[in-house]
Design brief:
By secondary structure, this protein is of the alpha/beta class. It has a single domain, classed as TIM Barrel (Alpha-Beta Barrel), CATH 3.20.20.80. Helices cover 35% and strands 14% of the residues. It has a six-stranded parallel beta sheet with strand order 10-9-8-5-4-13, with helices on one face. A three-stranded antiparallel beta sheet has the order 1-2-3, with no helix packed on it. Strands 6-7 form a two-stranded antiparallel ribbon. It is globular and about 50 Å long. The chain starts with a helix and ends in a 7-residue tail after the last helix. The relative contact order is 0.16.
Length: 368
C-alpha cells in the first residue's frame, strides 16, 4: 500500500510539474500555439482566415452561432452549488462540464457553427420553477471568473483557455461575455476587471476571440456598466487591446442600441428574445436605417434569440448572423443554459437547429 501511494504521489508531482511548465504564472493558460482560426471583418461581413464564411451558402459572410454561456460555469457559493449536481454522481464538477462541452465542438463545427458565446459570469442558470428561478437583482449563487478586486480566478481562466483553443482548432470564433446582470455587483472594481480581462485575452495571442462587454446593459447594471456608459467601456477595451479585439455590447430582447454605442462598437449586437419574426425583422431594418449605422456599416449579430427557426431564417435572409438560445431546464437533458448541461445534440429542438445551421452555412471546413 505504501509503495502504491508513493507511485501515485510521484505521478501527481510529475503531472503538476508538467502543467506548471506549460502555464503562464498566475494566469492558468498554456503556452500559446499559432492560431488556426483568424476572425476578421470586411464591411458588414465576417471572414475566417481571410475568406468569407460559408461561401456560396445563404449564410455567406455570417457567423451562425449558439449561446453557450455556461461552458466554463462554476458556483463558488457552498450553499447553492448543490443546485447543479449531476444526476449520476450527485456532485457538481466544473471540469466535467467543460470537458463534455469540448468533446462536442467538432460536431458543432461539422454542423456549420461559426461562433459560440461564453460568459465569464455565465447566464441565468436556474430554469426549474418554482425551486430554481433567477430573481431580480443579485443572484444567490456566485458565478464569476472575477474576484471582488477585479483580479481573475485562475481555474475559470484555465477553462476559458481550453474552450478558446478547442474552438480555434475547429474554426469557431468565441465571443467572450465579460459581465452578466445579477453577478456584476459582486465585482467592486469593474474598471480594473475590464483591463485585466482585456490584458489576459491579448496576451493569449488568440485570433478567434470577440468581446461582449456586458450582456444586456439595460437589464439593471451599475453606473459603470450601464448602457449610458457602455460606449466608454467598449472604447476602454478597444484602446487597451490596441485594436486587437473587436468589441461590442448587447441590449435586452427587442432593444435598439443607442447611437453612441453603435458608433463606437466594432459589431452591432441585437437580441431577439421575446420577438416574433416580424418584430425581429423590423428591429434589423430599424438598425440599418439609423444614421449612426449608415455612417459606418458593420456586421450585425443576433447572439441571443430563441429556438425559433423562423427567426433564424429571417435573420440570415437579412444578412444578419443569428444565435440560438435554448435555456432548457436543470435536468441534464434539455437546453444549453441550465446546469448540469447536456452538451450533446440530443433533443428535437437541438437537432432542428443544427440541421438548419448545416443547411444555411454548410460544414465548417476547419473542423477537426
Amino acid at each position: 500500500m505504501k509503495r502504491h501511494r508513493s507511485i501515485v504521489a510521484l505521478v501527481a508531482a510529475l503531472l503538476t510539474a508538467s502543467v506548471a511548465v506549460g502555464l503562464q504564472p498566475g494566469i492558468g493558460r498554456a503556452v500559446v500555439p499559432a492560431s488556426q482560426t483568424v476572425v476578421s471583418m470586411d464591411g458588414t461581413r465576417f471572414l475566417i482566415n481571410g475568406q468569407l464564411t460559408s461561401p456560396g451558402k445563404p449564410a455567406e459572410g455570417q457567423l451562425l452561432n449558439t449561446r453557450m454561456a455556461q461552458a466554463i460555469f462554476d458556483d463558488d457559493n457552498p450553499a447553492t452549488v448543490g443546485d447543479w449536481v449531476y444526476p449520476d454522481t450527485h456532485l457538481w464538477d466544473p471540469q466535467r462540464n467543460v470537458n463534455e462541452f469540448l468533446a462536442m465542438l467538432p460536431a458543432y463545427a461539422q454542423h456549420g457553427i461559426r461562433m459560440i458565446t461564453v460568459g465569464l459570469q455565465g447566464g441565468c442558470p436556474a430554469h426549474t420553477p418554482p425551486a430554481l428561478t433567477c430573481p431580480g437583482g443579485d443572484h444567490p449563487w456566485l458565478v464569476s471568473a472575477i474576484n471582488t478586486d477585479g483580479s481573475l480566478k485562475p481555474a475559470w481562466m484555465t477553462r476559458l483557455d481550453q474552450v478558446i483553443r478547442a474552438a480555434d482548432a475547429n474554426g469557431i470564433a468565441v465571443m467572450v461575455q465579460f459581465f452578466y446582470h445579477g453577478q456584476e455587483s459582486k465585482v467592486v472594481d469593474q474598471f480594473t476587471a475590464v483591463n485585466n480581462i482585456t490584458d489576459w485575452l491579448v496576451s493569449g495571442g488568440y485570433r478567434n476571440v470577440l468581446v461582449e462587454t456586458v450582456n444586456e446593459c439595460n437589464a439593471g447594471f451599475s453606473t459603470f456598466l450601464d448602457c449610458a456608459n457602455e460606449a466608454n467601456v467598449v472604447k476602454q477595451v478597444q484602446d487597451r487591446s490596441g485594436g486587437k479585439l473587436a468589441v461590442t455590447v448587447s441590449f435586452t430582447g427587442g432593444g435598439m442600441p443607442s447611437d453612441d454605442v453603435i458608433s463606437q462598437e466594432d459589431i452591432v449586437l441585437l437580441h431577439g428574445n421575446g420577438q416574433t419574426t416580424e418584430q425581429l425583422v423590423d428591429l434589423i431594418n430599424g438598425l440599418k436605417a439609423k444614421a449612426a449605422y449608415q455612417a459606418n456599416p458593420k456586421p450585425i449579430v443576433v447572439n441571443e434569440d430563441s429556438t425559433s427557426l423562423d427567426n433564424m431564417n429571417a435573420s440570415v435572409a437579412a444578412g444578419v448572423s443569428w444565435g440560438y438560445l435554448d435555456t432548457g431546464v436543470n435536468n441534464y437533458v434539455d437546453g444549453y443554459q441550465s446546469p448540469p448541461v447536456n452538451w450533446t445534440i440530443n433533443t428535437d429542438a437541438k437537432r432542428a437547429f443544427f440541421d438548419n445551421t448545416l443547411r444555411l452555412a454548410g460544414p465548417n471546413s476547419v473542423a477537426t
